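In the current project phase, the collection of sequences with tokenised folds has grown. A representative record is quoted in full directly below:
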Amino acid sequence: MSPELKGTLVLAGCGKMGGAMLEGWLKSGVSPKQIVAIDPKPPQEVLAVLQRHGIRHNPPFASISGAEVLVIAVKPQVMGDVLPGLASLMSSKPVIISIAAGTTIATFEKAFGADAAVVRCMPNTPAAIGRGITGMVGNAHATPSQMALAETLLASTGEVVRVANESQIDFVTAVSGSGPAYVFLLAEAMAAAGEKLGLAPELAMKLARATVSGSGELLHQSKEPAATLRQNVTSPNGTTYAALQVLMAADGIQPLMDKAVAAAARRAKELAG
């Protein structure tokens, strides 16, 4: 792993995203001896990983020394209960990496000190299979080396992009954080439309699922823009052309997506206070 993790990596919260990051770190070469997991009730599959690798789990805070990174992956609603206990780890000046939706950098500066180095991130659920994308932004106290270390750790579950300022994290949330749900809804809608044409429900969903996932993989592997890939499928006056006349009409998918993403961005801003 480069830049190299020299101290202790503390993971607070071992749910789906925290567990995915944990597995990514182990695969990328982080030593289990450098990791401490804090979670009163991790999922059974994550607990098995902790036990298999001999990772320290819920040790007394006083026994944790040399914390270099503190990753906060707890749910926002329990943040107030969790942060006070973690404050004891600040003596070693770790970089704080938060993947908690709707929790601002200011919240961590208030809890850990105005000079705390904080990196706020927004990953998405494909991180569970190493195909996520995470937006990140640091505060003024996060040094270039801390930002680089944070980016490397986040890259264990997929791509990482840096945004210009914290307000753009709300936009990342609206596009990629919530985005997987839009794609899953597309598969649902395609299957439902197929059923209305007369396909059996199981067959309609199988066709929709394979089409959405296969197209996503093609988009991932291709160097062509999405628009070019769309055009490659569209024969003049053919079946795809007929469908796109509806989807690309003035009242088609784009205005709906604009409204949906804007609604998600507004809600992200509201949750951040």
Q: What stands out?
A: The mean pLDDT is 95. The radius of gyration is 21 Å. The domain at 179-271 is CATH 1.10.3730.10 (ProC C-terminal domain-like fold).
